[in-house]
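User: Please predict the structure of the protein below. I'd like the answer in structure-token form so I can feed it into my own downstream comparison script.

Assistant: Understood. Taking the following sequence of 318 residues as input:
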Amino acid sequence: MRAIVVSEPGGPEVLEWREVPDPRPGRGDVLIDVAAAGVNRADLMQRRGLYPPPPGVSDLLGLECSGVVAEVGEDVEGFSPGDEVCALLAGGGYAERVAVPWEQVLPVPAGVSTVEAGGLPEVACTVWSNVFMAARLRRGETLLVHGGTSGIGTFAIQLAKAFGSRVVATAGSPAKVRRCLELGADEAIDYREEDFSERVSADVILDIVGAKYLRKNVTALAAGGRLVVIGLQGGAKGELDIGALLAKRAWIHAAGLRHRPVPDKGVIVRGVLENVWPLLDAGAIRPIVHATLPMAEAAEAHRILESSAHIGKVLLAP
């Protein structure tokens, strides 16, 4: 098969579309003929040599995909060849085929194309596991979403609104602010023009920035608030005012998906299937896709993400 290979750590130009050995399904694995793979910022970090895959996982890029089941290994439950699926991966999505544990596989939702579904697993599992499982966002509470027009942000806005929460989003331009409002945000703030911490009191904050926003995020938390950090675009080390956390009875949770054990990912995937997929089936929420590029143009897809010009997901299709 063909896959995107990182010839050496570096910029987008190091990505090469070339022949590699075909994967084989092991016990409990589903082999998928890939229709599309989502592009995530973690892929950019791995390309630069900063985010290696877990031991024993494919060193190919790609943390999510969609496609058709080609083959199933022993002990696979609920999937058969020919099924249209999407999957949460620990690696290997930038390829024509990928093998993945069956616990991390989901059916393509009704009303969503197989290609569009390639951008669903990572955002759905990230938002569900962090905002709802960990931070326990409740109806009527306020969620602050940073990066409201990112893949994560566009999904988080819609899902939180569908569950009856108030949503505030930050974005980096007037056009992106308008898009957040169109997706259902009750309020959107241009972070280049205004300090969100002076305007927002949030019960839950979903943060992709990290250190740069740490002080402001703590300021923006309501009493009993929960800050969930899932990205480090603004750095990994910051100063934390523990006294402010104590006064607000607040907490901070940091989490990623890639390095979790398969059983843990299976619990998240089942939660997504039970609670999120019905909303996609009904059309209450939908994937937002900025662009779909040929897999061979993965370098251009990475440049789009690095420019932050996108709204929603960027996908690659073989």
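That's the full token string. The two ends are 10 Å apart (CA to CA).
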